[in-house]
Amino acid sequence: MLTLMHRSVPSGTSDKIGTIQRRLAWPLRKDDTHKSRNGPNFFFPKIFMNLWFNVFLLVLSSVNLIFQGSIELWFNKLLESHIDRF
Question: Which positions, given as ranges, span the membrane (predicted)?
Answer without folding.
Answer: 47-67
